[in-house]
TrEMBL record:
Every DUF2231 domain range: 14-132
Record's keyword annotation contains Iron-sulfur: no
Organism, scientific name: Massilia psychrophila
Keywords of the record: Membrane, Transmembrane, Transmembrane helix
Descriptive protein name: DUF2231 domain-containing protein
Transmembrane segments: 12-29, 49-70, 82-101, 107-133
InterPro entries noted in UniProt: DUF2231_TM (IPR019251)
Pfam family of the protein (one): DUF2231
Length: 142
């Protein structure tokens, strides 16, 4: 009888990384919904809500991006899927930052560009969250 000590379980995202990654899409989605509410009512409070939600999404995506870059540098995380995940997070952060700068304008002057950027950042955030969870999962053994 032969015994094998080969472990086949894969390492997933750290649970904190997963929680931070999971928070990016809802915050950016809230910003998009606030932009939609502003575009239909022209109440300035919706533009302010969008600015705060986008700032929160930037904080969460910054933490997830930092974690992804650290994992990308590590030897056990090199590969096509993790590089794609990191690039999607970087694109999400860049477009989210540009969206934040657009929201810093007067509320009337921010439209329609802020709405377009909000749609793009939500799509990128959903794509990076999907790739992060579908390809890597959360947890896992060592």
């Amino acid at each position: 009888m032969t015994a094998s000590d080969v472990r086949t379980c894969r390492r997933g995202l750290h649970p904190i990384h997963g929680a931070v990654l999971g928070g990016t899409a809802p915050l950016f989605l809230g910003g998009l919904l606030s932009d939609l509410a502003y575009s239909s009512s022209y109440q300035i409070q919706w533009s302010d809500f969008a600015s705060w939600l986008i700032a929160g999404g930037l904080i969460f995506s910054s933490l997830a991006l930092l974690w992804a870059i650290i994992n990308l540098v590590r030897a056990d995380r090199r590969g096509g899927h993790f590089l794609l995940y990191t690039l999607l997070l970087f694109a999400t952060w860049v477009v989210g930052f540009l969206n934040s700068l657009t929201h810093a304008k007067d509320a009337w002057a921010a439209m329609p560009m802020s709405l377009i950027l909000s749609v793009i950042v939500v799509l990128l955030a959903c794509a990076s969250t999907w790739v992060g969870f579908a390809k890597f999962g959360v947890g896992g053994g060592r």
